[in-house]
Design goal:
The protein is mostly helical. The protein has one domain. Helix content is 67%, strand content 0%. α2 packs antiparallel against α4, α9 (180-216) runs antiparallel to α10 (243-256) and α10 (243-256) packs antiparallel against α12. It starts with a helix and ends in a 15-residue tail after the last helix. 33% of the residues are buried.
């Protein structure tokens, strides 16, 4: 059963990559770009291609596959300011880039305090999930892992990070001024950013306290509640299993609606640049499932937590079951 699940995960990842490339090819073939948008997109693709090459080459040489994780919060800042500058610093594009900068700085700081960055840029703490994925019976074969690294970690994830910024590109030529829809867009985005910030801070404090407690008492089940469970059930995490993921997805879904504010779409709220946020949701579906499967193997009470608490809806609160 475990082997089948792992194979299904790999197959799903491959299918997502192929589907994404097919959808993007159709999307861009159907959409007419202005000369300025086309030139800007070419510049963004050059940056994206260089980043993908960097992630693959450095990741393989350093045997550290979190190179893209380090760039995840940095590249959108570069992309959105390139778009804003080439778009004449329209107030909408300026606010978009300014917000993404705030998002990126916060996420970078949060990742940095976990040890992800080092003055030796190719080193740093690797995301624990890559080691587990790499240990898969299929992916542990070196040629197969290199292909996975090239196409999924390096190319696909870089393409996705660029794709979530495309609503800004789509809004470049808009004559519509900054209006009430823009205000709503950024209010929602700020709300989701606040949610993500609070969730990350609660998670950080929980695990830092747990680490200190384990230094004095290495047996997890002898720690005081709620640390004896091993995973966080306090604050937002007591009502949602992934409040930080909800915040992240909500941010980019909110920012998508700048296309509506810019009147860049003639189809109501539907626009080709929606592909980025939708693919981000798919990525988080896979990421959350992988993370939960790992956590469930480590902590016996996690199954009860999953039964009681929804992934993103704060409708039920976790209550410990009596042993």
């Amino acid at each position: 059963m475990k082997a089948n699940r792992k194979k299904n995960l790999i197959t799903a990842a491959g299918a997502v990559v192929v589907l994404t490339l097919c959808v993007l090819s159709v999307v861009f073939s159907k959409f007419e770009l202005s000369q300025n948008q086309a030139d800007t997109l070419k510049l963004l693709l050059i940056v994206c291609g260089c980043a993908a090459a960097y992630c693959f080459i450095v990741g393989e040489l350093a045997d550290n596959y979190s190179q893209m994780d380090k760039l995840w919060s940095i590249l959108p800042i570069a992309y959105t300011w390139i778009i804003a500058v080439r778009g004449g610093m329209h107030p909408r594009l300026f606010c978009y880039a300014l917000f993404v900068t705030a998002w990126g700085v916060r996420l970078t700081v949060n990742f940095a305090r976990k040890g992800a960055y080092s003055w030796k840029f190719w080193t740093g703490v690797e995301d624990y999930r890559w080691a587990i994925v790499r240990n898969n019976s299929i992916l542990r074969r070196r040629p197969v892992w290199m292909l996975f690294d090239l196409f999924f970690i390096s190319i696909y994830q870089n393409a996705l990070v660029l794709a979530i910024c495309l609503p800004a590109l789509a809004s470049m030529e808009s004559a519509a001024w900054f209006g009430w829809i823009d205000v709503l867009v950024f209010c929602f985005a700020v709300g989701f950013l606040t949610l993500e910030t609070v969730a990350d801070e609660q998670q950080w404090r929980f695990f830092e306290t747990k680490k200190k407690l384990l230094a004095d008492q290495p047996e997890l089940n002898k720690l005081p509640a709620p640390y004896d469970l091993g995973f966080n059930t306090t604050g937002l995490w007591g009502r949602m299993r992934h409040p930080n993921y909800l915040g992240e997805q909500g941010i980019w879904l909110s920012l998508y609606f700048v296309t509506v504010a810019a009147q860049a779409t003639d189809c109501g709220v539907l626009h080709w640049s929606m592909i980025g946020p939708l693919l981000l949701i798919l990525l988080f579906m896979g990421s959350s499932s992988l993370g939960e499967s790992i956590t469930a193997k480590k902590y016996p009470h996690y199954a009860s937590y999953v039964r009681q608490v929804f992934k993103y809806l704060p409708l039920r609160k976790f209550r410990r079951e009596e042993e």
